[in-house]
Amino acid sequence: MPTSQTEVQSQAVELSAEAMETFCEDISGMFGAKITCGKLEAASETVEGLKNRFKNFVAVNCVKTDGSLEGTFQIIIDREGIFILAGLITMPEQMTSLLEKCVGPAKIEQNLKSGSLKDAEEAQDALAEAGNLFIGSWDRTFREGMEDHGHFVQSNTFIGQPWDNPEKTINLTKDEELLYVPYTMKIEPYPDFHCDVIFPLALFSKTEAKLKIEAEAKAKVEAEEKAKAEIEAKDKAEAEEKAKAEAEEKAKAETEEKAKAEAEEQTKAETEEKAKAEPEAEEKNEAENDKKESVTKEDSETAAETKSHDNDTDVPEEAVKQEEVTTIESDETEQEAVSESIQKMVQSPAHLPGEHTLPSLAICAKDIMQKDVVWGNPDESVQQALTKMQQADSGYMIAGTDGVIEGIVSKSDITGAISPYLRPLFAKWRRPLDDATLQIKIKWIMARPVRTIKPGTSLEAIMESMSQLGGRCMPVVDQQSKVQGLVTVFDIFKALLQYTSNVSTTGKTNQAPPLV
User: How many angstroms separate the CA atoms of 326 and 293, rounded?
Assistant: First the structure.
């Protein structure tokens, strides 16, 4: 794309030569005449210089242009060209043979010799038609060769001597700087004539300024798009990081719960072991006492009486001592078990009243999905899709027929498809070509294939799928593939935020694309 006045000027001159060739080809095809043209050397010129170049009357077609070239330029046809082109165009197609032998050529020859300004003015309609043919050929050539070309429109046709009052007659000031591009044209069997082009230099100055403004606007749009992409990437990374942290917290909680259960199980086993050991100790003590009593009865009654007192004193003391040792050891074992259990319980985290817990990742799609779904036909236009999404305040639309999903259209798809000049910020440079982007069919921009989920799909599975596939919206379908709703990243955020006491999720997130 040209970026300076010199580049735009050079491109305009090159394209004008191609446009003249195209005009000659069009005229040859329409009227069966042999027409050739040749470009002469371009030069800087003024109105006074043009007056010296054209001593006789001329025909001037003023052409208004917009787009890359902004303003008006002129096509000048000299006296001979007036009568030759007018005579050719006014002949019916079936009488083109008259160029060689009948009234038409004779009239042209007569006008070439003695035609007056009055005769030329009578041919003004034919010259205006010639101007339309010029513009048609030029418009096609510039549309193909010059980026951002708009339209050429014939504003007026003047016949006479325009040089005395050029501003009124042909929209030129006397001191204006001009680029003069002369062409010689020949229609057999008539003599050569001039068909020249005048480009005011102001035409290119405006273009350069406009190109600069457009470049700045484009850079601004690109910067905005880049910033938007960075924000989206950051949001995605944060969501992934959050999901990862939640998964780690869940794993940690499960590990702690398992350790706590193991500690409780160990404490229970130690308690059961202790309860089992106590009856066995009691049985052992009773057996020892019975044995001692049996030995005492075998002694003599006297010795028994004397020693019984001693034995009664000694044996209970030993038994008491043995029982105390057993009891002390049992108490120490119990204290160690209780101490170890308490220690494990202290090290295990517990959620106190008022503390936050992690959301359940087992929440299903049917619990968080949007049940109101916007549908559109794949052959509908971007304008129709945009209207539906704005009316429903939705960031997504399913494209399909008879309930069968064929694709899905997002706000990002709409933004990428239409021209940025449709935004109010750039309304000054809005063109018909920009409006045309609203007529693009959504089947050319929709995302496909569409990955779906079932109503029972868990929140964890949905988040994992979105992270791996990069999508931000998934339709929910039942066993018969009938659409039940949509789950978007916004629905996931709301489900997670419900577990945070200081964050409100009341209301609906604004998702519709307010673009035009």
Answer: 22
Contacts (Cβ under 8 Å, ≥6 apart) of 207:
5, 8, 68, 69, 70
Domain range 5-210, its CATH number among 3.40.50.880, 3.40.1550.10, 1.10.8.50, 3.65.10.10: 3.40.1550.10
| Measured torsion, CA atoms of residues 423, 427, 429, 435, in degrees rounded to the nearest 10 | 60
Encode 218-233: b = buried (16+ Cβ within 10 Å), e = exposed: eeeeeeeeeeeeeeee
- For the chain, the distance separating the N- and C-terminal CA atoms, rounded to the nearest angstrom, is 28
What residue type is 228 in one-letter code?
K
In the numeric block, which tokens belong to residue 386?
């945009």
| Positions of CATH 3.40.1550.10 in the chain | 5-210
Tokens (6 digits) for 149: 């070309």
As a whole number of angstroms, the distance between CA 65 and CA 429 comes to: 15
| Full pLDDT tens readout for the chain, 516 residues | 555 778 888 899 999 999 999 999 988 888 888 899 999 999 999 999 999 999 999 999 999 998 888 899 999 999 999 999 888 887 644 344 433 434 467 888 888 889 899 998 988 888 888 888 888 999 999 999 888 888 899 888 999 999 989 999 999 998 899 999 999 999 989 999 999 999 999 888 776 566 666 667 888 888 888 989 888 888 898 888 898 988 888 888 888 888 888 888 887 877 777 666 666 555 665 656 555 555 444 444 444 443 443 444 344 444 434 444 444 344 444 445 434 543 454 344 444 444 445 555 568 999 999 999 999 999 999 999 999 999 999 999 999 998 899 999 999 899 889 988 888 888 888 898 888 999 999 999 999 989 999 999 999 999 999 988 888 899 999 999 999 999 999 998 988 887 655 555 655 555 655 665
CB within 8 Å of 403: residues ≥ 6 apart: 482, 483
Please give the CATH topology (third level) of the domain spanning 365-497. Answer: CBS-domain (3.10.580)
Token couple for 239: 């969501």
Measured CA to CA, the distance from residue 66 to residue 51 in angstroms comes to 28
User: pTM of the entire structure?
Assistant: 0.42
Residue ranges of the chain that CATH labels 3.10.580.10:
365-497
